[in-house]
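User: I'm curious whether this sequence folds into something compact or stays loose and floppy. Could you predict its structure so I can see for myself?
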Amino acid sequence: MRLALCNEVIRELDFPRQCALAKTLGYDGLEIAPFTLSDEPHRLPVSRRGELGRIAEDHGFAITGLHWLLVTPEGLSITSPDAEARARTLDVMRGLIGLCADLGGRILVHGSPRQRPVEPGDTREAALGRAKDCFAAIAADAERAGVVYCIEPLAPTETALINTVAEAAAMVDEIGSPALRTMIDCCAAGQSEQEPPDALIGRWLPSGHIAHVHLNDPNRRGPGQGDMRFAPILDALRRLDYRGICSVEPFVYEPDGPSSAARAIGHLRGILEALEAQPA
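Assistant: Here's the prediction. I'll summarize afterward.
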C-alpha cells in the first residue's frame, strides 16, 4: 500500500511547497481537493494541468487522485429536485474525472456531504434515487478515462444519505460499472458502522468493492491523535495484500496543518515498520 496526504491539510502552502513538504515527510503522493486549485477546478486550463503534473514529477511525487469533489462552484447537488442543478453538477463531475486523469490520478472519492442533502419537503428515497442516477450517469465517463470513482459512506452527522459501506456497495452493485466502487473512511466508519474499520476491511476488501481508504480518527484529527487504533487497520490491509492508496485526511489540524501531517505519517510509518518486523 502507499500513503498519500490530502492536500487541503497544507493548503496554506503553494503547490510546489506542498509537494516538497509531503515528500520530505515520507508520503508517497498527494490526494487533491479540487477547490484548492480553483473556484472552477473542472475547467482548469490544460496548461495548468500540465504544470501541476510537471511540478509533482519534478519532486519525484505522485498525484494519486481527487476527493471532496463538489465544494466549488457553489450550488451543486446530486440530490436536488431541480433538474438544472443536477445537470450542472454532472458537468462538474465529468470535468473532474477528466482533471483527475490529466493529473495522473486514478481515484476520485465522492464525499461532499453538503452536496447530497435530503432537502426540506423531499424524501430520503427520492433523494437517494437521484444520487444513484447521477453516479450511473458518470460511470461510463470514468471507464473511458481509466479512473475509479468511489462513493464515500459518511457519518449521519454529515449527511442522511449513504452512511455505511453496505449501503454504498449496494448502490455500486445496482449500477454495475467496473469504474464505480466504494471506500472506507475511518472517521466516518467509527461513527456509523457497527464494526471497527479492520473488520470492515476484512469483510469488504475481498469482495472487490473497496478501492480506497481514508485514515483519520473519529475525533476528526489525524491518526495518532485520538482513540482509534490504526495498527489493526494497517495489519488487515497488509494481510489482504491491499495495493491501493491510504490517504491521511484529518479535518482538525492540531496544532497546524504541517504538524498534523508530520505526526500522522510518523505514527503510520512506525506501525508499518513494526508489522513488517513480525514473523510471517
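Summary: Residues 187 and 217 are 5 Å apart (CA to CA). Strands lie at 2-6, 29-32, 62-67, 107-110, 148-151, 180-185, 210-215, 245-248.
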